[in-house]
Specification:
316 residues, alpha/beta, Rossmann fold, seven-stranded mixed beta sheet, 11 strands, globular, binds guanosine-5'-triphosphate, binds zinc ion
Length: 316
Amino acid sequence: MIKELPIVECIARARIPTTIDQKQHTYPEIFLHLYKNNKDNKEHLAIVFGEDIRSKSLFKRKHKDETQYERLIRGAYIGKLEPNRLIADEYKGEKLQFDEETGELIPNFTTNTYNKKVPVRIHSECFTGETAWSARCDCGEQFDLAGDYILKHGPSSPNNERHGVIVYLRQEGRGIGLSEKLKAYNLQDLGKDTVEANLLLNHPADARDFSIASSILLDLQLSEVDLLTNNPDKVKAIEIENKLKCVSRIPMVPLSWKETSNEIDYVDEDEHGKHHGIKSKEIESYLRTKIEKMGHLLTTPLTLHTNTDASSKSIE
Ligand SMILES: Nc1nc2c(ncn2[C@@H]2O[C@H](COP(=O)(O)OP(=O)(O)OP(=O)(O)O)[C@@H](O)[C@H]2O)c(=O)[nH]1
Ligand SMILES: [Zn+2]
């Protein structure tokens, strides 16, 4: 069955110098792409590692009279921005060419887009976990791990720039929004698990739609990805026949499980050789529910379960 894909358009892109990878003192630059789409009115994002991964819709000429300055300002330029630069489509002997009819970029061998297989994380917004230090979930940790993974394992170009993408979807609370998620948290404190709480509020266990992520990856002209996730639904949801393939799944093992699992080789250790993951009774129950009720592909460590039958279960 051919999936009907949302239409996405990258409306702006900007270079972000980062604070990540501090141990190696390389501080890589990333390129933040902001998208609009025809399905919801949210501004979804792609955090792109690799200057030469190019968004088709960003580079396309908006109209015949679009000026070079307008293109520079919305981020549709090659090379680097520097004071007094005036031309977006040319840089150090490279020149973009466009189809006169459609305004689309014509790929050529100097200005081609990077289209090899890259690691990708599809991440859903979580204000509580990413901003408010919540120990109820591992979203902040997963976000950081995805960046660390790309910087260690993403394919590199001759200038040592790693390639990968984090698609950041504005689907707070698995799509139910922050206010409903806060109500769900109160239900969880009343003894319900994360799935039961959603259902009691008349929401599905997971209200998300990952098709916008597929459209964004296709717009970035990627056709093969390694997906960083434990969620089998995401793998199924983002694949598009003959266009977008998930070649392999990279498990996201919680850092606090590191002592019982040797699956992470891309995280910096502290001076004592330790990693510091989230430890709380809430995260235990959050992860347990994901594994037992949402089919997440994690091998459960013994400490996670009170009942011995479940404790020996290996789901992968
Ligand atoms: N409704 C609800 N949403 C939650 C709760 N805890 C976290 N979330 C949301 O769950 C989403 C986390 O999703 P992700 O980490 O991207 O994906 P996932 O389905 O957990 O799968 P992974 O790729 O394995 O991490 C975010 O939108 C969070 O805001 C909760 O208790 N209830
Ligand atoms: Zn979260």
